[in-house]
Specification:
mainly alpha, hpI Integrase, Chain A, 2 domains, 3-stranded antiparallel β-sheet, 10 helices
């Protein structure tokens, strides 16, 4: 995040220098603080089935299935409206997020332009979302809180995630780690980095690569083995 902000600021200041609004770019040569990477965890593949089964038991399969197949940020997921879903083209439009500020749920635009995006979603996700909307056809929200009948509270949704993990006997992971799970599995099963970067709303593919080095190392090995096999067959 820090490096992304620095890159954006540096580009703006460079443009200001080019337009002679500034004599020099004060961000050039700025030393960024070293980042301590938090250990990344994911939901193990053998726990995904039980996780979704427990979500279904709680009447929340559509929301958690969509999360695991898109890697949306929690605020983005819960801010989705029925009108954001394009059933025919099997896409969802991500253009807002919800957060709790001073005790109130506040909907706002995402922090960066890259976060505003249109995502292709699986056929099964479309079916689940249509079924979900049928439960509350008069609500504009895709996901409705069973307690309030309005927009889902992000904190409440996170607590539900934690309860599901406990029930299925999975190691505790943050809700945000479901986003990492989506990204890691996407890379593992052949989604190219540029496509994944766009889906996640990252500012460039390089950031995605550096974030998911653990997954891309396996891809490099598979690529090496593949090209080695092809060349060996010609000998």
């Amino acid at each position: 995040m820090v490096r992304g902000i620095h890159t954006l600021l540096n580009n703006c200041l460079e443009q200001a220098v080019a337009e002679r609004l500034l004599l020099a770019n004060p961000a050039k040569g700025c030393r960024l603080p070293k980042l301590e990477k938090r250990e990344m965890k994911i939901l193990p593949e053998d726990k995904i089935g039980p996780y979704l089964a427990e979500a279904e038991r709680r009447g929340l399969l559509a929301a958690f299935y969509l999360e695991l197949t898109t890697g949306l940020r929690r605020g983005e997921l819960l801010a989705l409206l029925w009108t954001d879903l394009d059933v025919e083209n099997m896409t969802i439009s991500v253009s807002k997020q919800v957060n709790r500020l001073n005790g109130e749920l506040v909907v706002s635009q995402p922090k960066t332009p890259n976060s505003i995006r249109k995502l292709a979603i699986p056929q099964r996700a479309v079916e689940l979302l249509v079924e979900e909307h049928a439960k509350h056809p008069h609500s504009p929200y895709l996901f409705v809180s069973p307690k309030t009948g309005t927009m889902f509270d992000p904190d409440s949704f996170r607590h539900t995630h934690e309860k599901i993990l406990k029930v299925i006997g999975a190691e505790h992971i943050r809700f945000h780690d479901l986003r990492h799970t989506f990204a890691t599995l996407s890379l593992k099963y052949g989604v190219d980095v540029k496509t994944l970067s766009g889906a996640l709303g990252h500012y460039d593919a390089g950031f995605t690569l550096s974030t998911y080095t653990h997954a891309t190392e396996g891809m490099k090995r598979d690529a090496a083995d593949t090209i080695g096999s092809v060349i060996s067959q010609t000998m």
